[in-house]
Specification:
Layout lengths: L38 E9 L4 E10 L13 E8 L7 E3 L10 E9 L2 H4 L3 E8 L7 E9 L11 E4 L12 E9 L14 E11 L11 E8 L8 E2 L10 E11 L8 E8 L6 E8 L5 E2 L2 E2 L7 H12 L5 E6 L12
Antiparallel strand pairs: 1-2, 1-8, 2-5, 3-4, 3-6, 6-7, 9-10, 9-18, 10-13, 11-12, 11-14, 14-15, 16-17
Amino acid sequence: GSSMSNISISSGMASMSSVSGSMTSINHADLGDVDVQGTIQFAVNYIQKLGEFQIFVVHCRDLAMGDSKKSRSDPYVKCYLLPDKTKLGKRKTTIKKKTVNPTYNEILRFKILLEVLKSQHLNVSVWHNDTFGRNSFLGQVDLDLSEWDFSNATINEYTLKARVTKPFLVGQMRVALRFLPQTSHGKRTSRMETGEVQIWVKDCKNLPPIRGVIIDSFVKCTVLPDTSRKSRQKTRVVKRTANPMFNHTMVYDGFRSEDLKEACVEITVWDHDRLNNHYLGGLRLGFGTGKSYGVDVSWMDSTTSEANLWQRMLQSEGEWVEDVLPLRMLTMAKSTSK
């Protein structure tokens, strides 16, 4: 097999201009109901002195028809490094019109440290470009780069596969909770008896890099339905690690035990950036009933393991309960994402 280094670098087949203008969302409106078929040929290479990961996209063969009514395909190839689906995590080739056998000979480039690259998956997908934005998915290849031999820059032919819906994990958090039912001061009256919830954020593991860079992370917490500034607390920033130790306890008071059936602790993890913090994932600890004080709310959506931890806290008054929970992508209320 011919090696990528003696094909691509000198050829100038693709410049950065061929991949700019491609920074749109991963959620294409994929309305095409297309049976996946065909192959794609590409090579991958890491150029140490440039700190650059390169995908040399050669061609596709025997693609499905992207638009069956018009009997045409206008295919292009798109690459992501997962789990980083942020806008800078995507590269695209040019679009080839009216062909199921497109030839590209283009290089797509990612600036990324090799140690970070080895924690990623490369997702290469083929799409039919529709004038009205209804792009059709034509197939994909997924490579686990943790097992990839980067000394091998040969061009390989891959069979295109249908999409797998398995979500990429975005790391996990070790968190402990306890409820102290009677912490009110002064004259004890049963009506005013309130307690406090303590949330001990211990650490996170396997947080995804952003744009190929190991992150500076911090954790934010709020107790819904209260989205006021008073409800929002956060940890310090822990720099340059995918496995930050926070060891930070947040205390919320004024709770009666019956309030805790209606409340939900939203804990989110962020990459700290001077201009704009990047959201990485989070947890929602509550009963997951979909309702709060009788009203339907989207945020009362705890998973089974999240709800179990909340339930254990209520059953273990005054004692710490702990779990390691997978972070997930939450749809947040605008007021909690500031």
